[in-house]
Amino acid sequence: MKISFPNYRSGTLLTRKQGTSFIISSVVIGLFAGIGGSHFLENNFALLTIAVLGIAGILLCLGVAGRPLLSWSKVERARSAPIKKNAPQTTSGWNYRPRKAIRRSAAVDSTRAEMADVLSPEPFAINNNGWLNDDALECPAHTFINRDPTVEDATAEAPLLGHASPVSVYD
Amino acid sequence: MCLLDDDPSVLKGLSRLFASADLHAEAFGDPEEFLRYVRTHRPAVVLIDVHMPQMSGLEVQSRLRKISPSTRVIIFTGKDDPLVRSTALNAGASAFFTKPFDDEELLTAVRLGLASAA
Asked: Nearest-CA residue of chain A relative to B52?
């Protein structure tokens, strides 16, 4: 089973924080400028209009300055898209690979195996964990003949005395 | 071809394996249902798991032999018991596998079974 975890980057979080602070600061600047301006000018309409226009200009400049910031956040979003593909994934599969040591050691250690061998010496072609009954198939089959005796010899010495009856996780 | 195992994940895995080799297999989780199917369809090859709660795979093999003697039987199990193995093979099983087994080897055994049954 393979589990992979996503790599979250702090850049996305920072961009969001910057955007929020930009909006808040704009509102605060506008509010103070309006209050301060109206108080300072004492209902002088012409100058008040100029002040409002000035504030609007400042805000516009800030907006222009903030545009690259917004586009940067878009880039960050695009970057984070493939990261979602790396969300935790569980992949399971059935491993058909033979566990060579278990069968052979069981045949060696089990007294029942000895009994069975005495009762019926196997005339069957043997592979690592497959036995083919040539009589039943009525045709020669070499597929299950073990082509790698060195592996079998090595595994026969595996100390698995505690596993008289090996159990597969699949059954 | 038929599959009999009480474990749905094994049935699913084997069905996919055979589908990838262009072999169609009917999957069964219940031995009685499997035997009912065999009575009418007489499959060429069957794969039977040994350890099932309802009925032993060896018993299924024995009953199957009476119902359809020409059907090739491949036995597979997760517990390697030499006595079970020799019993199954002496009772006429074409092949005996212990899990986890090599998929190519299983496919070869199935193909040999299909060829000899034809």
From this structure: A171
Question: Residue B86: its chain A contacts at CB < 8 A?
Answer: 116, 119-120, 122
CB proximity B65 to A under 8 Å: no
State the ipTM, two decimals: 0.74
> Could you report the per-residue pLDDT of A27-40, keeping only the tens digit for each?
888 888 777 777 76
Interhelix angle B82-90/A111-119, rounded to 10 degrees, is: 20
Q: Which CATH number describes the domain made up of B2-102? A: 3.40.50.2300
Phi–psi pair at B27, nearest 5 degrees: -100, 140
**Spatial distance between the Cα atoms of B53 and A119, rounded to a whole number of angstroms:** 28
Asked if residues B47 and B88 have their Cβ atoms less than 8 Å apart, the reply is no
Reported as a single tens digit per residue, the pLDDT across A94-129 is 444 444 433 433 333 443 444 444 344 444 555 567
Peptide bond into B100 cis (omega under 30): yes
| Residue B70 contacts A where some CB pair is shorter than 8 Å | no
Q: How far apart are CA A63 and CA A52, in angstroms?
A: 16
- Separation of alpha carbons A15 and A42, rounded Å: 40
| pTM of the predicted protein model | 0.48
Residue type, B94: S
Encode pLDDT of A128-167 as tens digits. Answer: 678 887 766 654 433 333 333 333 333 333 333 333 344 4
Measured between alpha carbons, how far is B50 from A33 in angstroms, rounded to an integer? 86
Chain B hits for A107, Cβ within 8 Å: 82
Closest CA–CA distance from residue A11 to any residue of chain B (Å): 43
